[in-house]
Amino acid sequence: MALKLKTKLALGVGFLFLLLLLVGGVGFYYFNKISLESQDVLKDNNKSVEYGHKMLDALNAWEKERDMARKVFEENLAAQETNVTEQGESAITHTLHRDYNTFLLHDDSLPLQLALQKSISRIIQINLDAINAKNIQSQKEIENAKVIIPLIISFCILIGFTFIVNFPGLIANPIIKLTEGIKAIANKNYSQRIHLQRDDEFGDLAKAFNDMAQQLDAYEHSNLAKILFEKKRAETVINSLKDASIGIDKNGTVLFANQQALQLLNLKEADAVGHAQADIQKRNDLFRFLTKEENGMPFKIVVNNKENYFTKEQIDIEQDQETMGHVLILKNITPYKELDVAKTNFIATISHELKTPLASSDFSLRLLEDERIGHLTTEQKELVQSLKDDNQRLLRILSELLDLSQVESGKIKLNLQAVPVNDIVSKALAAVQNAAREKNIQIKQQLSEYLPAVKADAEKAVWIINNFLTNAIRYSAQNDHITVKAGLHDSGHIEIGVQDFGIGIDVSLQQKVFDRFYRVPGIHEKKGTGLGLAISKDFADAMEGEIGVESTVGKGSYFFCRFKVA
Questions:
Q1: Fewest Cβ atoms closer than 10 Å to its Cβ: which of 159, 458, 479, 514?
Q2: Mind telling me which residue stretches traverse the membrane in this protein (predicted)?
Q3: Residue 461 CB-density burial (10 A; 0-12 exposed, 13-18 middle, 19+ buried)
Q4: What is the DSSP letter of 276?
């Protein structure tokens, strides 16, 4: 079975990796072996020699400092008994221990002391001989490593060099042939072919290249009738498109316009195709709008006394990194627009119809709380309060839906006038005092002095700041505080904002909070519809203002709205 190029590359890299592992493994083996043997020489045997010398010194000092000498001797004897490593050393150490016990009973016996010295000397000599033997063995291993490691390195270098010299040709040679073939095709030499006797990806690529060259050669020698047939087929495809399409070349000449486009332009094909767009612009307002207007917003066209909505899309046609022209495509979005209008009307109708009975039920709940009608038990008062809270929540949602339908329908009414900043802040604060009192939240004010009035609709401006305050109270902890700020942002704008010290919003989510029905993930808050900030943004845009947020997770959020100076 033929190996694919990917497999060959993997095998080649794996082979070099194995060579590297071989050199590294052999080197590590010998260095580790020599290191361990050297450690043995310096560790166990040297300690035994050291213990022996200390015991001899203790015997020599036995008459002068008997207690100290005895302590030193016994400590080193105990250490020696745990450090027996050489053949015959255990028996001598045992004999030494036995003679020492006898010596303690007859400490003035010179023969016993000489016997102890003799045993200690034999232990020292055994370990010195072992050190010499291990040192000789280490030297042999080093000499072996000096021979084996260079041989392996030389072998790997030879194999690796051979591999490096020959392996790149496996990839480079086919690429060179393919490059030559591509250059020939670029020069319109369609008879060029690539011959690679390979069963890998390069072989498949060469086969595909030869097929392409054959097709290009056949196309180059095709007759005029076939070209005309293809042109006619392309025109048929263009005319069958449901979307109105207009093609214009880089010189501004209209190449084609399907029947849908001609119907919208109220032109005949002979009056459009083949003519300069500048000439058509002079006698057709819609064509002038389509070719000059760069705004991608939907627009309205009246067709057969019916309003239709379209969006325009421009697709550039490029060849050899050069723009050869572009195609204008008009997409009919009338059905979607009608659905959107129906949705807006439905929301407005339902909201309006529900608001009246909810207001009536709220009035009835207030009457129930009036003690002149009758006294309620504690449980009944809690139920009434719960119903009142639900009623207020539904009323607030319906108000937001009505505001949303007003914005979407384009029927938003603004009474723009000069409004003092203090009036906006004070009215917004008055509306949230009860909510702040329930959570014992302190509202601080940082208002700059001598601020000029802003150009705004007073009701809508208060609504925006009130929404900021409501959210700040909602997402602040019990007994916390928030700050209302107002100051000059620049020479033409006043900024009013609300700073809370709650959970904050991640940077990636800060722009999404102004989308309709969007709520920050992970905040388990039952209240709210996700419409407040979206409606606030629509109100701010309608008053030519700017709305935004600055927030840090865990440190709080600052929502602001910038109004134009009146």
A1: 479
A2: 12-31, 147-167
A3: buried
A4: B
Q: Which range, 19-33, 325-339, 415-429, is most confident?
A: 415-429
412 pLDDT higher than 80: no
Q: pTM for the complete prediction?
A: 0.39
How many other CB atoms are there within 10 angstroms of residue 553's CB atom? 12
Q: How far apart are CA 474 and CA 438, in angstroms?
A: 11
Q: Cα(538)–Cα(425) distance, rounded to whole angstroms?
A: 20
CA–CA gap between residue 196 and residue 370 (Å, rounded): 98
Position 388 scores a pLDDT of: 67
Contact residues for 106 (Cβ-Cβ < 8 A; gap 6+): 112
| Helices (H) then strands (E): counts for the chain | 16, 12
What secondary structure letter does DSSP report for 44? I
Closest CA to 93 of 102, 103, 83, 105: 83
Rounded to an integer, the average pLDDT of 411-423 is: 82
88: CB partners within 8 A, 6+ apart: 126
DSSP state of 503: S
Spatial separation of the C-alpha atoms in residues 31 and 33, rounded to whole Å = 5
d(CA 317, CA 67): 106
Tell me, what's the pLDDT at 526?
44
* Cα separation, 556 vs 472, whole angstroms: 9
Measure the CA–CA gap between 415 and 150, rounded to whole angstroms. 93
The sign of the dihedral angle between the CA atoms of 105, 107, 111, 114 is positive
Pairing of strands 442-447, 481-490: parallel
The token pair at 166 is: 């020959």
